[in-house]
Design goal:
This protein has four helices and seven strands, in the order αββαβββββαα. It is α/β, with parallel strands linked by helices. The chain has a seven-stranded mixed β-sheet with strand order 1-2-7-6-3-5-4. A hairpin with a 2-residue loop joins strand 4 and strand 5. Helix 3 crosses helix 4. It starts with 14 loop residues before the first helix and ends in a 23-residue tail after the last helix.
C-alpha cells in the first residue's frame, strides 16, 4: 500500500503536552475550507486570562496562517487588564472591547476581513478542550461558541431556578 493510500488519522496532542504549555503558547485550530459558511472560524485555548501573556502567541500564530492581524475584539469582563493596543512583532495590534462574551474572540485582518474564534476557558480539561476545538473547527458548523462549550462540558448551562410551587388558589382552584 502506498503512503497516499493509507487513511489519515487525526493527530491529537498527548495530555502531557498540555501540562507543559505555559501562558503565551498558542493552542489554535482553524477551519481549513475555502468557504466561510460556519459560525466560527476556529478555536483558541489560552492557558490563562492574562491577555498580555496570551495574545502575542495567538497573533503570531494567526499571522503565519492569515497574514497581519490589525485588531482583536475581546470582552473586557473576561480578561485581566485589557489594553487598547499591544505591539507584537513590531506591529501595533489594536484591542477593542466588545460584549462578545468570554467564549469568543474577533480577529480583523485587512479592512473588513473578520474571523471569529471560540475561546476555550483556561480551566478546561484537555479532553473537553480538544472536543470543543474540534467542533468549532468543523466545516459548516452553525453552533455558537457558548453552546459548544456547554455541549463539551467546558461550561455549564445557565440553570433556570425551578418555579415555586403554586397553591390551589393561584391555579384557579376553589
Amino acid at each position: 500500500m502506498v503512503d497516499s493510500d493509507t487513511p489519515r488519522v487525526p493527530q491529537l496532542l498527548p495530555d502531557e503536552v498540555h501540562q507543559a504549555v505555559r501562558p503565551g503558547t498558542a493552542l489554535l485550530r482553524l477551519v481549513t475550507t475555502q468557504t466561510r459558511d460556519q459560525v466560527l472560524d476556529g478555536a483558541w485555548w489560552p492557558r490563562s486570562r492574562d491577555i498580555g501573556a496570551e495574545l502575542p502567541g495567538l497573533i503570531a500564530a494567526l499571522t503565519v496562517h492569515l497574514g497581519p492581524v490589525l485588531r482583536v475584539g475581546l470582552d473586557a469582563d473576561a480578561w485581566k487588564e485589557l489594553p487598547t493596543r499591544l505591539v507584537i512583532d513590531d506591529r501595533v495590534v489594536h484591542i477593542d472591547s466588545f460584549p462578545v462574551g468570554d467564549d469568543t474572540v474577533l480577529i480583523t485582518r485587512g479592512d473588513q476581513d473578520h474571523f471569529s474564534l471560540l475561546v476555550v476557558p483556561p480551566h478546561a480539561t484537555p479532553e473537553a478542550a480538544r472536543a470543543a476545538m474540534a467542533r468549532a473547527g468543523e466545516a459548516g458548523n452553525v453552533t455558537r461558541a457558548e453552546q459548544i462549550l456547554i455541549d463539551t462540558g467546558t461550561r455549564h448551562a445557565h440553570l433556570v431556578p425551578p418555579e415555586e410551587p403554586r397553591t390551589g388558589h393561584e391555579r384557579g382552584e376553589r
